[in-house]
């Protein structure tokens, strides 16, 4: 007799691999990932991402070539007396990337983990007043 949980898990993996094919939109692939709220105020942008069960050591925020990547790695729960039937709450590794606008100052990006919510603040560059340069005509 077939285990119904095994069959459901197998179907889930097949559906996920289908979404990884290039024939589907990027948004369809991102539906499987952790949700994030992003808002803007006068000083910058804030990304709020759910991170239940994630410790500070399991958070990586990386910036390179105008791309901000947030990776969440849950700590491994070692319990040899347990046989997992289904584990959905903590995925092994979850990563999201965001293309940053030119007005973000990457040298001042900050991240905090508070009560299972990751907060990433992306400050805007300070606006410089245009300089008026007088050129003498000869």
Automatic annotation (TrEMBL):
PANTHER family: HEAT-SHOCK PROTEIN 20 FAMILY MEMBER (PTHR11527). It holds the Pfam family HSP20. This is Hsp20/alpha crystallin family protein. Belongs to the small heat shock protein (HSP20) family. Residues 26-138 form the SHSP domain. It comes from Thermospira aquatica.
């Amino acid at each position: 007799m077939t285990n119904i949980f095994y069959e459901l898990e197998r179907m889930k993996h097949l559906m996920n691999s289908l979404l990884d094919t290039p024939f589907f939109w990027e948004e369809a692939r991102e539906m499987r990932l952790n949700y994030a709220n992003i808002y803007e105020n006068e000083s910058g942008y804030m990304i709020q991402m759910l991170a239940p069960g994630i410790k500070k050591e399991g958070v990586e925020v990386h910036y390179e070539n105008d791309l901000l990547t947030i990776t969440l790695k849950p700590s491994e729960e070692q319990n040899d007396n347990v046989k997992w039937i289904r584990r959905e709450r903590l995925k092994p590794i979850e990563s999201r990337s965001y293309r940053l606008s030119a007005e973000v100052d990457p040298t001042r990006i900050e991240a905090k983990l508070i009560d299972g919510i990751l907060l990433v603040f992306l400050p805007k560059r300070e606006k410089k007043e245009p300089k008026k340069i007088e050129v003498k005509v000869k």
